[in-house]
Design a protein that fits this description.
Distance between the termini: 19 Å
Helix content: over 70%
Order of helices and strands: HHHHH
Number of helices: 5
Number of strands: 0
Radius of gyration: 29 Å
Amino acid sequence: MSDIGEDGNVKEVMKETRCLITDLNLIRDEIITKETPEISMIQDKFTQISQQIEERKKFINNRLEVISKLDLIINILKYKIYEVRYECRKNLDMLHIRKQKLRNACFKDLTEMQVAMELEEIDNQMKEEQRNVEIQLESLKEQKIEIQLEYESIINTMDIDMEQILELYNNLLGTVEEEKMEADPIDIEVIEEKSRPTIDEFKKDIDYFNEIKLSGWRISNSEEKLSGSQCLERYFQCFCLISLEKYNFLGVKFI
């Protein structure tokens, strides 16, 4: 059974995800430290706030991508933990069957001493199998905990990011109302028509983010939008559920 670190696809996803997390931290620092310039013209203010919303949108979307990748890695690690346990149980059952056959066999071809030696060898194989599985499971669980901590650290700050983009959106609406108050009546309709596409676009984005927020910031992708690695994850999940029912007698459980 190969360790997760030897799995090229998973290793590559983990490497890519860590790079994304580093980039996101740099983007966050840049957003926080960026000074908002003094804006005198209302239209310039509208443009400036729109740019800030775009930056925040991009940041949130990037974080959602990281969350999806971390969620994928966690699911694959869960599958691998299941796989290690299942393979161990299967191998131990096969060794146990060999022991039973030896014990029940007539000593026609083997002496009592030979049978005893065979049984001792099987016991040693079973102990070695259990030791190897414990090492693999410990490594997998450590990686799973590490990824879960990164996952939770991002999830725990997503609500703050949402509040910030909502504040910017409300400021944008206020800017439009401010411009309408200072404009001639004949220009109000022009102002509304000019700002409406931008406002509608941001409203759509915010509604989308709110929907994801209600799901715990987990994106439900349609099958046609899944990447190859995500399809693999779906397969793993389905396989685990089916196998759990099929091999329930083995006592295999997810952690």
